[in-house]
Design goal:
This protein is an alpha/beta fold. The protein has 14 helices and eleven strands. The chain has one domain. The strands form three sheets. It has a seven-stranded mixed sheet. A two-stranded antiparallel ribbon has the order 1-2. A two-stranded antiparallel sheet has the order 5-6. This is AlgX/AlgJ SGNH hydrolase-like domain-containing protein.
Length: 317
């Protein structure tokens, strides 16, 4: 049943001290309640993107998967006020409109793993807890690394311990800011070298991850947002090279330059309030100029760049 729009609030306080993003640019509670709906063309654009990406990767012999990261208000809907009946935006507005079983199989929505694993969300943040990041990584790679996956899950969960007290992105919106005790891995799962191109903001960030002790020699290319960025240390258990690009599109020029074995694309579920076609993508390396934001690559990024990126492939049209 469609509900009336919710009051103009940005942060909602639910049960057990959990904070939720309720408003903001994506009007989260309105879209997850059905009070607001994505544009009628949005599901078609979404599935055209998915089908086109899957076909492109298949033609190049590259594995492909898209991940929709379930929103906190869906994972912990039992902690919201009773009158706020929210449901999955992906399942309601997108999942049932998949054009084929093959297209739907390209999308992972790991809601069951997050709801069944306990304490997968941070209290004062929109993102998952360390446990949640471990669990969602497990869901993403389980069928890709069936023999190595169980040991990863066991060892990483055993390595968690309370380490810090800090406010999350929602806690910082309150006055005074609200903090929480958060778990961290006591030591890295594998030794990695990680370098950033140093762009501020969102679109255009590139991170290179070198993981010489990964369980495979495979290269992973990711086009996604902060939810993927936060699990790079976990994915480094499985992939020797990882290139992360902060963008909503799949960029063919980066695929050619990286020559990956596997591509993941993904987005936070709340970003499904709108959808843009891949045909509108700029060249990924043009983001600093489009945004007017300078690059400040760190030393590790500069050292890894010639090993990870083919300069000649970047020139191909």
């Amino acid at each position: 049943m469609t509900q009336e729009p919710f009051p103009d609030e940005v942060v909602h306080e639910g049960g057990d001290g959990y904070l939720f993003l309720s408003g903001g640019a994506h009007s989260v509670f309105d879209y997850f309640s059905g009070a607001a709906l994505p544009l009628p063309k949005a599901p078609g654009i979404f599935w055209k993107n998915i089908s086109g990406r899957a076909a492109y990767c298949a033609s190049a012999g590259i594995g492909y998967r898209h991940v929709v990261f379930p929103d906190k208000c869906v994972v912990l809907r039992n902690l919201l006020k009773p009158e706020r009946q929210l449901s999955s935006l992906y399942q309601r507005a997108y999942g049932e409109r998949a054009p084929s079983a093959e297209a739907k199989a390209s999308v992972l929505y790991p809601i069951d793993r997050l709801t069944d694993s306990g304490q997968t969300m941070r209290r004062t943040d929109t993102h998952y807890s360390a446990r949640g990041n471990i669990v969602v990584t497990s869901a993403i790679v389980a069928d890709l690394f069936p023999t190595e996956h169980d040991a990863y899950l066991r060892d990483s969960l055993a390595g968690l311990a309370p380490r810090e007290i800090e406010p999350g992105d929602l806690g910082r919106k309150l006055t005074p800011p609200r903090s929480e005790i958060i778990d961290r891995l006591q030591k890295p799962l594998v030794p990695v070298t990680m370098g950033s191109n140093g762009i501020s903001g969102n679109d255009g960030i590139m991170i290179l991850v070198d993981s010489p002790q990964a369980v495979s020699k495979r290269t992973l290319l990711i086009f996604g947002d902060s939810f993927f960025r936060l699990i790079l240390p976990m994915l480094a258990v499985f992939y020797q090279k990882i290139v992360f690009c902060r963008t909503r599109f799949l960029h063919h020029e980066i695929v050619r330059a990286v020559n990956p074995d596997q591509i993941f694309t993904g987005q936070a579920e709340r970003y499904l309030s709108r959808c843009e076609t891949d045909a509108a993508r700029p060249h990924f390396l043009s983001y600093p100029y489009l945004k007017g934001t300078p690059m400040a690559p760190d030393e590790a990024f500069c050292a890894l760049w010639p090993r990870f990126i083919s300069g000649s492939a970047l020139l191909q049209v």
